[in-house]
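[step 3/7] inverse_fold.run input=structure_tokens len=259
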């Protein structure tokens, strides 16, 4: 049986300050409960181990799941690090390289709260604690809207800048807003990244393009049962009736195939 792996996507670990960011804010207490359960019920792995397993270079652990954070909020450093270290959960932080020590201007320009991003020293501390640092471009643009020179700067220069800060290779990338096209995907590969994460939901398996990895987004409103359901079914859509509809659909599909 082919094993599958899931990747979780978080953004802000804090109480929401505006209506627009409710979706992106997971309160720290809820995150702690989610990680405590994850450490018991699943096999948390780094993106490097997940990728090695998908590529057949090593055995992929059963129930493998990787934890990722987009944008590099300072609240991630404050609230996530102690929890991840307590439960020995590896994680990947995708950093907007030209906004280090700054703020999330791409969000508050759209009416969301202004929030601080991690500075270089915090990023180094995360790296020293065996957390993976990945690139989320220089300025968080919509890559398909960039001209070739802009796209190249965002993808290539962000890797170089982070590597200069860390004195360590940066192997993983995440597409801002989950948006990419064939040109962006090819450039990420040519730049030397080993993987790229999208925002498309679902599981990853050996047939998955490692430059179009799927992730399950954890919303601010998600309770523990939502997380459990997302990991069981590989979808962002959760409800009390979803399992019934899912299994009913599979049953009807099998009956239809027999006829």
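[step 3/7] decode complete -> sequence:
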């Amino acid at each position: 049986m082919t094993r599958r792996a899931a990747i979780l996507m978080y953004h802000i670990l804090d109480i929401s300050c505006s209506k627009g960011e409710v979706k992106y804010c997971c309160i720290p207490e809820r995150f702690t409960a989610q990680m405590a359960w994850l450490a018991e019920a699943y096999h948390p792995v780094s993106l490097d181990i997940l990728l090695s397993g998908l590529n057949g270079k090593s055995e992929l652990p059963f129930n493998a799941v990787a934890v990722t954070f987009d944008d590099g909020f300072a609240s991630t450093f404050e609230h996530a690090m102690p929890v991840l270290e307590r439960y020995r959960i590896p994680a990947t932080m995708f950093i907007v390289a030209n906004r280090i020590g700054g703020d999330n201007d791409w969000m508050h320009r759209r009416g969301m709260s202004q929030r601080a991003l991690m500075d270089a020293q915090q990023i180094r501390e995360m790296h020293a604690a065996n957390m993976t640092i990945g690139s989320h471009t220089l300025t968080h643009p919509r890559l398909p809207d960039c001209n070739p020179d802009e796209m190249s700067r965002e993808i290539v220069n962000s890797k170089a800048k982070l590597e200069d800060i860390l004195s360590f290779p940066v192997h993983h990338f995440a597409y801002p807003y989950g948006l990419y096209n064939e040109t962006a995907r090819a450039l990420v590969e040519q730049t030397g990244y080993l993987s790229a994460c999208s925002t498309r939901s679902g599981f990853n398996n050996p047939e998955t393009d490692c430059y179009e990895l799927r992730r399950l987004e954890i919303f601010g409103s998600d309770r523990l049962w939502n997380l459990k359901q997302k990991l069981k079914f590989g979808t962002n859509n959760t409800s009390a009736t979803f399992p019934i509809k899912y299994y009913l659909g599979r049953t009807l599909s099998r009956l239809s195939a027999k006829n």
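[step 4/7] annotate
The radius of gyration is 18 Å.
The chain has one domain: 5-222.
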